């Protein structure tokens, strides 16, 4: 009353009218804010040794928030690596084990080359009657013997390499499954480091340090609260006047007397009518069937999941 007296008759009248207008603000639809809540599960089993999260905490994508005990996985990996080392020690050293044949071949090829030169020289001398046919036949015989020796060495080399290659393939076939197991363990070890898969706010912590984590069992629930979705309802008469990506005004209670205003965008319109939810008010209170819509609203920090909102179409 003191305030009205200070304002005077005209000011008091305006104040009353503004108050009535605020209280009787009209709207086209109403609904409740929601967010896409995601339950983040464990991917491996084990005791959670560390967990650094709190409800309401904002997490960045990729941030490390805890660890699952990985002792048994490390021990299993060491065992597999030891088995791999044992197999590697048995792998044939083909180059080393066939080096003797290579050396023999080089010696024989050098001797053959020398005798080829000597054969040509004696053959020329034979034409000049400076050498005898017996000398030529002797050199030719020695040359043929060396060539036969070279062929034997080549066959021995190929046979030895074939045996060693067979041994190598057999050992490598034992090695491949072990390598796959090591890769599987490395993947499990990486999952023992708990990383946040998305940016968002922790809504609910479902498990705590020193408790057992199981694959698929939720650790915490989170959601991206930078934008909330207002799920509202419109009547069939309003459906034709609303379109996707249309901008709308959203109102929420700031206190008992004032409203906060937000700008939103229509992101989804249902194609099927449904019975009007009991907790929702529509512009036409007599409407039995309504269409659900979703409005994306940037969150300045004042919007909360479950908060009631009213919509005015622009």
Question: How would you describe this structure to a colleague?
Answer:
The chain contains six helices and 14 strands. By secondary structure, it is of the alpha+beta class. Residues 1-23 have low confidence and may be disordered. α4 (99-127) packs antiparallel against α5 (133-191). The strands form three sheets. It has a six-stranded antiparallel beta barrel. A four-stranded antiparallel β-sheet has the order 2-9-7-4, with no helix packed on it. The chain has a four-stranded antiparallel β-sheet with strand order 6-5-3-8. A hairpin with a 5-residue loop joins β11 (247-253) and β12. It has helices at residues 2-23, 71-90, 94-97, 99-127, 133-191, 236-239, and strands at 29-34, 38-41, 46-51, 58-59, 64-68, 193-195, 200-205, 212-213, 218-223, 227-234, 247-253, 259-275, 289-298, 308-313. It folds into three domains: 26-36 and 225-313, Efflux pump adaptor protein, beta barrel domain (Elongation Factor Tu (Ef-tu), domain 3), CATH 2.40.30.170; 38-68 and 193-223, OB fold (Dihydrolipoamide Acetyltransferase, E2P) (Beta Barrel), CATH 2.40.50; 71-191.
């Amino acid at each position: 009353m003191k305030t009205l007296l200070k304002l005077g008759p005209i000011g008091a009248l305006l104040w009353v009218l503004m108050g009535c207008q605020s209280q009787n603000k009209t709207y086209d639809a109403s609904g409740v804010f929601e967010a896409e809540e995601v339950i983040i599960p464990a991917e491996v089993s084990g005791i959670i040794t560390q967990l650094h999260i709190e409800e309401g905490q904002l997490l960045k994508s990729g941030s490390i928030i805890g660890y699952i005990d990985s002792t048994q996985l490390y021990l299993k990996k060491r065992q597999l690596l030891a088995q791999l080392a044992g197999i590697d020690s048995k792998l044939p050293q083909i180059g080393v084990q066939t080096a003797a044949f290579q050396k023999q071949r080089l010696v024989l090829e050098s001797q053959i080359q020398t005798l080829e030169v000597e054969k040509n020289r004696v053959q020329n001398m034979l034409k000049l009657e400076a050498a005898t046919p017996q000398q030529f036949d002797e050199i030719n015989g020695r040359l043929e013997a060396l060539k036969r020796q070279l062929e034997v060495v080549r066959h021995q080399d190929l046979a030895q390499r074939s045996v060693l290659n067979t041994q190598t393939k057999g050992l490598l076939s034992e090695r491949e499954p072990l390598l796959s197991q090591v890769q599987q363990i490395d993947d499990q070890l990486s999952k023992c480091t708990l990383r946040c898969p998305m940016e968002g706010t922790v809504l609910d912590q479902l498990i705590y340090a020193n408790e057992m984590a199981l694959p698929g069992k939720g650790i915490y629930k989170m959601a991206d609260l930078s934008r909330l979705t207002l799920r509202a309802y419109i009547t069939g008469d309003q459906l034709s006047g609303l379109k996707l990506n249309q901008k709308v005004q959203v109102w929420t209670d700031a206190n008992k007397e004032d409203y906060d205003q937000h700008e939103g965008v229509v992101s989804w319109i249902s194609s099927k009518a449904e019975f009007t939810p009991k907790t929702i008010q529509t512009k036409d209170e007599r409407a039995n069937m309504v269409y659900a819509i979703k409005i994306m609203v940037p969150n300045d920090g004042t919007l909360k999941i479950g908060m009631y909102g009213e919509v005015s179409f622009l």
